[in-house]
């Protein structure tokens, strides 16, 4: 992760992963996906989420594995 990397919203990270926003919210409820709370909003760094996917964190969603390549 670089200092200049942008924070992504739930909708943006869902689009990045090719899943619905509701899936991201489910992962948040289960404390699975790496996320940061900024006020009332959830924010994400794509590099952190990509690393989580590559390590099998999203193994319950097969389409995500295809979305993020090593």
SSE layout:
Blueprint: H1 10-17, H2 21-29, E1 36-38, E2 41-43, H3 46-54, H4 62-67
Antiparallel strand pairs: 1-2
Number of helices: 4
* Average pLDDT rating: 85
Order of helices and strands: HHEEHH
Over the alpha carbons, how many angstroms does the gyration radius reach?
11 Å
Total strands: the figure is 2
User: How many separate domains make up the residues?
Assistant: 1
Strand content: 5-15%
Distance between the termini: 15 Å
Give the uncertain stretches in residue-range form: none
- Major β-sheet annotation: 2 strands, antiparallel
Shape: globular
Quaternary structure classification: single chain
Strand order of the largest sheet: 1-2
- Structural class, by secondary structure, is mainly alpha
Helix content: 40-55%
In short:
The protein has one domain (10-67).
How does this structure look, described?
- The chain is mainly alpha-helical.
- The protein has one domain.
- The protein has helices spanning 10-17, 21-29, 46-54, 62-67; strands at residues 36-38, 41-43.
- It has a two-stranded antiparallel ribbon.
- α1 (10-17) crosses α2.
- The longest helix has 9 residues, at 21-29.
Write a concise keyword list for the protein shown above.
mainly alpha; two-stranded antiparallel sheet; 4 helices; 2 strands
